[in-house]
Structure formats: structure tokens, C-alpha cells
């Protein structure tokens, strides 16, 4: 499945006194990248399979050294970035069950983490982060023809959106590709995740 296009207007705001934190109880992961640090909150309640898969890659150390190898920039601060194991068989864990947004209630709004896939149930170690509201293209649309189950959303960027924007703005190499795929969408000098780690809850 290929998605043609991919946000928080700023970092996720601190909870307003007297109002609940929308990400309370979600495990936090710090992604220390060559472009700066981001913190993502992972929804293990609504998307338990997908979220725990991401945490498995973090906890095992396999996320360290991963690259933001694909960038689809549609407009300023609108598009998506993709990172992960790049189908390296030595780093991949088994595929997981697909959790469509129609089941989880999550949506591909700005700063959402999700998992790209081919057929449902083939997602393994590749991840995307959206900039801008991507619900029309990334969410499930079961009423349409085809599988139309979208990507599985499971988390949110809660700190470091400026770093996410800088990754989206990384210059692309018009000829670079991954075994024929993603031509014109791959950076010449990709941003690297130096260290991914869980933060204390």
C-alpha cells in the first residue's frame, strides 16, 4: 500500500491546570537524533499491539542507528517522514496484527506515529510521523473499495516538533532510491537516531 501524501502547530502543550493530560499514562520515548531530540508518547491502551512493537524495537536497542530514510514533503510543515529498519532481516521482529484507526479510535493528525505496511498484518519495523492533518489518506476508510484499512496509528510527538520539521526539510537526492522504490523521496544525508530510550514514567 502506497500513500501519496502524509502536527502539532507547536510542541504538545503542557496540561492546563485542572484539565487532564491527554497523554497521561502513555510511555514516553526520547529519540535523540542527529538533528536534535524529540519525545514521543506511545498509546499502549488503544493500540497495544502496535505500540508494544515500537517499544520492543526501542528496548532491544534496534532503533539506535535507524535512519529517517524517506521524506514526503507536500508543503511547508505538511507531509510525512519514515524511519526504521529498512527491511534489514537481522533487525526485524515478526510481523504484527494490523490495528486500523476504525478500531483504535486514533487518527493521523499532526505529529502522529504510525506503521506503514503492504497487506494488513505485514507491518514490522518501519514507522512514519505525520506533519499536518493526514486523516484523509492515512486513516482507515472501510467503506471504499480495496482494503482501505490505512496505517496503524499508535503515538504522538509531544516534544521537539521543531526537530520533526527540520527532518521534513532535509534536502533530497533526486536519484537516490531503495531497490527502485522511493526515488526522489530519499535524503542524501539522512537524519540518524543516535539513541532511543524510554523515559521514566
TrEMBL record:
Pfam families: Pro_isomerase. Keywords: Isomerase, Rotamase. Signal peptide: none annotated. The keyword Isomerase applies. InterPro entries: Cyclophilin-type_PPIase_dom, E_coli_cyclophilin_A-like. It comes from the Bacteria. Residues 32-198 form the PPIase cyclophilin-type domain. Its EC number is 5.2.1.8. It is an enzyme of class 5 (isomerase). Coiled coil: none annotated. GO terms for molecular function: isomerase activity. This is peptidylprolyl isomerase. It comes from Stakelama flava. The lineage of its organism: Bacteria, Pseudomonadati, Pseudomonadota, Alphaproteobacteria, Sphingomonadales.
